[in-house]
Amino acid sequence: MAARHYGRLGKRRKGIARRFLARLSGLSRAPLTRLMGQWLRHRRIEARPPRRRRFPRRYTPPDIALFATLDAAQEGRSGPALRRILEREYQWFANSAYVRLAPISVSHLYHPRRCRAYRSQRVVFDRTPTRQVGIAERRKPAPQGQPGYPRLATVRQGHGDSRPGRYHINAVDTVRQWQVVGCVETISERHLVPVLEAGQGGFKPQPPCPAPPSPAAELPLK
Q1: Could you read off the pLDDT of 164-186 as tens digits, one per residue?
Q2: On the chain, which terminus has fewer CB atoms closer than 10 Å, C or N?
Q3: pLDDT in tens, 199-217
Q4: Global pTM?
Q5: Residue 146, helix vs strand vs coil
Q6: DSSP 3-state assignment of 133?
C-alpha cells in the first residue's frame, strides 16, 4: 500500500488493490478492511493476541509435575488407587504440596496425563509385540488312528479379468482317505461356514462294516 500510494488512488484502483491484497493474503473482507484501516491510521500493523474467555486453571504446572513424579513412582496404577494415594498424602501425612491434587476425582484424573506438561515429565512407550496372538493353531492333526479329523489346505487361484482369484478348500481325512473339495470367494466366516457344514457330513465316524462270513461257514454239514 505504501509503494502504490493507496491513499492517492481513485475508487476504481482502490478496489483493484483491495482484491489483489485479498487474493495475496487469503483474508476475507472484514479482517482485510480492519488491517487496511489500521495501516492508514498508524502506518503500521501490530499483531494483537487473541482475547478468549478461558476458565481459571485449577492445577498449576508444579502440580502436574508432582503428579507425574508420583505416577511414575507408582508405575501407572489405576485411577481409584492413585486418587486414594493423593488423598492420603494430604490428609494423613500433611503434605501441603498435594492440597489441590487431593480432592481430584477419578474421572478427571486422566486429563493431566494428556497435557503437555505431564508428557514433558513422563512418557510411556509400549514395545511392539514380536508375535501376534493367533486365532487358531496351525499344525497337522494327530487322530491316533481315529477317523473324523480332516486336514484342511487352501490354495488361491490367480487373478483373471481384473477380478481376484477364488480360494479352493481341500479337506482330507488321512485315516479313511476321504476328500472333500470346495471353493469360496474369500477366507471369511460368511463364505467358509456353508462350505464346511456341507462337507462335514462326510467326516463323521462311520460304524464299522460287518466282517464277511468265512468260507467254512458256507459249506453244508454232512
Answers
A1: 778 888 888 877 777 888 888 88
A2: C
A3: 776 666 555 556 566 555 5
A4: 0.38
A5: coil
A6: coil
Find cell 491484497 and name the residue. Answer: 21
Which residue matches cell numbers 493474503? Answer: 25
**Interatomic CA distance for residues 195 and 180, integer angstroms:** 10
- Contact between 148 and 204 under an 8 Å Cβ cutoff? The reply is yes
SS3 category, 182 = strand
Distance from C-alpha of 59 to C-alpha of 77, rounded to nearest angstrom = 20
Please check whether residue 1 is in contact with residue 17, taking contact to mean a CB–CB distance below 8 angstroms: yes
3-state helix, strand, coil split of the chain in percent (to 5) is 40, 10, 50
| Burial of residue 66 (number of CB atoms within 10 Å: 0-12, 13-18, 19+) | buried
> Beta 178-184 vs 150-156: how paired, if at all?
unpaired
The backbone torsions φ and ψ at residue 173, rounded to the nearest 5 degrees and listed phi first, read -90, 110
Average pLDDT for residues 33-44, to the nearest whole number? Answer: 81
Nearest to 123 by CA among 113, 131, 133, 132: 113
Q: How far is CA 155 from CA 21, 137, 160, 167, 218, in A?
A: 65, 18, 15, 6, 52
Query: Cα 65 from chain centroid?
Result: 29
Residue 24 in grid coordinates: 495475496
Q: How many residues in total does the chain contain?
A: 222
